[in-house]
Amino acid sequence: MALSPKGRRGYAAGALALIAALTLSACGSGDSGSSSGTTSASASSAGDAGVKLVQPGKLTVCTNIPYEPFQFKDDSGKIVGFDVDIVDLAAKKLGVTQNIVDIDFAVIKSGAAMAAGKCDVAAAGMTITPERQKNIDFSDPYFDATQALLAKKGTGAKSLEDVKAKNLKLGAQASTTGLDYVKKNGFNPTEYADSAKELLALQAGQADVIVQDLPVVLTWLKKPEIAEKFELVASLDTGEQYGIGLKKGADPVLLKTINEEIAKAKQDGTYEKIYVKWFGKKPGELG
Known about the structure:
Blueprint: H1 11-27, E1 34-35, E2 44-45, E3 52-53, E4 58-63, E5 72-73, E6 79-80, H2 82-94, E7 97-102, H3 105-109, H4 112-115, E8 121-122, E9 136-138, E10 143-152, H5 160-165, E11 170-173, H6 177-184, E12 190-192, H7 195-203, E13 209-213, H8 214-220, H9 224-227, E14 230-242, E15 245-247, H10 252-268, H11 270-279
Parallel strand pairs: 4-7, 4-8, 11-12, 11-13
Antiparallel strand pairs: 1-7, 2-3, 5-6, 8-15, 9-15, 10-13, 10-14
Pfam family, one: SBP_bac_3
GO cellular component, one term: cell envelope
Family: Belongs to the bacterial solute-binding protein 3 family.
């Protein structure tokens, strides 16, 4: 999600504490996420590829749902989305299946989830930032992202400046680049744990305006009950790019496979098909 450029502290001092916290949360009530399958910290090989995986025959992927259209549960309860389809390309190349773990985003962006063997990779609409790169290795960029402001109709706001001038209540998703962006512009927004809670706050009147990734906002506005009362008031060109996250010092074969499959998909038209499937437009046309 436009993940925060910034939720990364120095790896050395914080890594052990983060891993310990993750281990405890995975064992008790502190874990806010759920998994589509159990994982194991012991490594195994994925067939002839020789890739080290935390669970035999599976590429275990950490994400944070809901974050439609990147990853969310469909009507049957299956986790689907743009990120899911992108990661599936690498999973199929490795001859394994994708196993998705729903976990708190802060644990993902800190690198703790992968350092503790919770997952092999992270695909959570996560922006590549220098701060995150201290704790996570990233694939080549696979999505160009930007932020947007969604507001209840009638506010008259058309920009962040208007939000400030009109003294409107601003909300943002915690641990995201959207949050970081508005903070850098002098705002102190109310933070919400995930995108669903952020939208709910807007609907309940707890916030007048929220900042969120543009594709997420556009997906929300496809729903009549949202479009009837709320509107996109501004796009914020933040120049972000998403990447697939991997453990620091990632398995070179796994990283190479992911990068090759992203490049191949862009060359043979597969990427465009996936893009149109989830966004209804071709790359470069969104927004």
